[in-house]
Amino acid sequence: MILEGAGIEAALLVEEKSNDRYGGIGSSSGSSSGDGSSHVTAVAVFSTAVAVCGSFTNGCAVGYSSPAEIGIMDDLGLSVAEYSVFGSIITIGGIVGAAVSGKLTDLIGRRGTMWLSDILCIMGWLAIALAKVPVYIAEIIPKNIRGRFTSANSLMICCGSSLTFFVGTVVSWRILAVIGAVPCILQVIGLFFIPESPRWLAMVSQEARLEAALQSLRGKNANISQEAGEIREYTEAFQQLSKARILDLFQRRYAHSLIAGVGLMVLQQFGGTNAILYYASSIFESAGISATFGARAMAILQIPVTFLGILLIDKSGRRPLLMVSAAGMCLSCLVVSLSFLLQDLQLRQGLTQIFALIGVLAYLASLSMGVAGLPWVVMSEIFPINIKGSAGSLVNITNLFCSWITTYTFNFVFAWSSAGTFFLFSIICGATVLFVEKMLPETKDRRLEEIHATMIHFLQ
């Protein structure tokens, strides 16, 4: 088996050096011109739009705690400790969803899992993490635009949280909860009209449906025979390497992918991502800034900055954008830490509010440009098809567990030392820059198969 695996991996590396006409799942046009151009069909665009409806709902959930905090605490008489439990409880539901999402995506497909997620989400926002939106998009879109389309996931999360930040300042927390469920209904309807991922169809040996799905994604006049053949070849090769069991994730050949994927998620959350978003109102009020003004400023800033990041992702690459984003978060947290330090020392009170506002908004801008969404893009690219379901579950659980830790403990740590809290976030964001530089390969303009073959040999 070792020799057989080595032969397969060697073949993959040989293929990596060949001329690249196809993207993550092949050329979108199937043209014989050999120029490698990608023609995006209306079906691919519509499929992406339907998939990211779930991301929009996720964004609404992420942004819900901050504008709803005051209203919920007043109406229900919750203490800070009790609201910390409420603010972090969505991550518990997410952990449950993530624990089963890997097997579900392999058993019922990417589209089927999104359907199930919507049903549960409409019932109570309990299993948003079930939907494998970045994975689905990465598997249907060609390589040269894969980053931008996969980043639509983070854009819609951003739009959802921005809408929640803004609308939450003018409506009650109950109405805000109802608004968050609307995109799920739209996605349920749209899922009837989009194809399943061709890679998953190849994995479950549904040849006819694979070709039909690929044809609809590439256009009715496109020649998909070579592309479909490559999908089958690589899917079969990686399935021979090992079965998709959770213990297989810890084999040496997957160590690089696992360290990169899990490490990014840990650093993302411990760098303050969800904690700051969830409790932005408390942060602004502690600094003497109007929570309404701060929330609206965040809502206005977040979308254009995220859109800028999407424009840059397939030009600058994943690594540079992640490093710049994390560096910006590091400096922003230092500024916020300085503002609260001045407040504690009762020095230059006028600068406290200015530094806090600039720091939080700069943090949000830096976060939205890269660290908020790019780890999910990278996660959808670095894991081979035979472990993608299990690896996706592990990465999701890690992210949500770390999110639960930070969102539950934030209010307590912030009350102990507001300056120290942001100084700690700054250190972790600085560590993220070093981690990306040392551990993360560039995936821009590379086929998924190339990435997988390279990472398998990284530690061998």
Order of helical and strand elements: HHHHHHHHHHHHHHHHHHH
Percentage of residues in strands: under 5%
Task: Supply the number of helical segments.
Answer: 19
| Integer-rounded radius of gyration | 22 Å
In percent, how helical is the residue content? Answer: over 70%
Structure, explained:
This protein is mostly helical and 460 residues long. The chain has helices at 2-16, 42-76, 80-124, 133-140, 143-167, 173-190, 198-203, 207-218, 225-241, 255-270, 273-278, 280-286, 291-316, 318-344, 349-371, 374-382, 388-416, 418-439, 448-456. Helix 2 packs antiparallel against helix 4 (133-140), helix 3 packs parallel to helix 6 (173-190) and helix 10 runs antiparallel to helix 18. It starts with a helix and ends with a helix. The model is unreliable at 1-37 and 125-131 (pLDDT under 50).
